[in-house]
Design brief:
The chain is mainly beta. Helices cover 9% and strands 26% of the residues. The strands form 4 sheets. A two-stranded antiparallel sheet has the order 1-2. Belongs to the glycerophosphoryl diester phosphodiesterase family.
């Protein structure tokens, strides 16, 4: 038996059959910014049983939900003068980037 066939299921209400669990990866990210609390609620309203976030540990040990390895992929932090001293270049996912 494969791991997929052993995955937990919920009752569908149709002749005792089980329906697969619906997992919303990053929330309703097709409608709202991914990993935003505002994106989690509609995911459940659309029928998701769970939301599966991507968690990353920051240098100071705090868990944050984010998908992209570089902040510039989803934020405008590079445009803020107060962040200029924290910019650095690094390779992520095979590409050189500065954030």
């Amino acid at each position: 038996m494969s791991a997929l066939s052993e995955a937990p299921c919920r009752k569908s209400g149709h002749l005792g059959e089980s329906a697969p669990l619906i997992v919303a990866h990053r929330g309703a990210s097709g409608y709202l910014p991914e990993h935003a609390l505002e994106a989690y609620k509609p995911a459940f309203e659309m029928g998701a049983d769970y939301v599966e976030p991507d968690l990353v540990v920051t240098k100071d040990g705090v868990l944050i939900a984010r998908h992209e390895p570089m902040p510039s992929g989803t934020t405008d932090v590079a445009d803020h003068a107060e962040s200029a001293s924290r910019k650095k270049s690094r390779r992520a996912d095979g590409e050189e980037a500065t954030d």
